[in-house]
Automatic annotation (TrEMBL):
Record keyword Transit peptide present: yes
Organism from which the protein derives: Aureimonas phyllosphaerae
Keywords assigned: Chaperone, Transit peptide
Protein name: Chaperone required for assembly of F1-ATPase
Species lineage: Bacteria, Pseudomonadati, Pseudomonadota, Alphaproteobacteria, Hyphomicrobiales
PANTHER family: ATP SYNTHASE MITOCHONDRIAL F1 COMPLEX ASSEMBLY FACTOR 2, ATP SYNTHASE MITOCHONDRIAL F1 COMPLEX ASSEMBLY FACTOR 2/ATP12 PROTEIN, MITOCHONDRIAL PRECURSOR
Family according to the record: Belongs to the ATP12 family.
Matching Pfam families: ATP12
GO biological process: proton-transporting ATP synthase complex assembly
Amino acid sequence: MSNPLQKPELPKRFYQGVAVEETAAGFEIRLDGRPVRTPIRTLLAVPDRVIAEAIAAEWERQETHIDPSTMPVTRLANTVLDGVANDLGATRDDLARYAETDLIAYRADEPERLVARQAEAWDPLIAWVEARFGARVRTGAGVMHVAQEPATIEALRARLAEENDPFRLAAIHQMTTLTGSLIIALAVAEGRLGSDEAWRLAHVDEDWNISLWGEDEEAQARRASRLTDMRAADLFLRR
């Protein structure tokens, strides 16, 4: 009997060569000349050569077995082609929910140094939202829900409605879920922040705790993996 906790066996690498080919569908990834397909058999074709070459590099780096956990750009492209591209509205709606629970709206009430670090990191983004969208972001201390003004939520929804490229929209969604902040993700999408700076701002609380208690290897590995996903999303925004 198989162990339900045992990780599934990874498929063996079955190809020798990896190439990018431009076709009517976009830039396709080819393995020994054959096109790659997504988990639901959609043709893996992307609209940008840089993204395609990043995907090809991930396939090339696979050694004896194919490990999807080491292929963040491929995974995100699959998400776009199998999901987001088929229903942009659902992705926008999911993102809009983050407008009501954005990370940067929730502040510590102590200790004083953490309060100051949060303000230094996040208050400029609050000001940016007001200047860019004419919307005020309410903040609160503790874990109680901070209700945002309907006009603020509507302004952020309107910004999301402008995103009609499924690759960009998926990137914003991935950044939002990784950081817990739609505002941080939109700041990257608009060039207000670089992805590494956005990552730092999203981890003010975590870095504070690490400075006090340290960080174990497993937590470090999880964070490093999530950072690669952040950078994959950033690649999709730079096209």
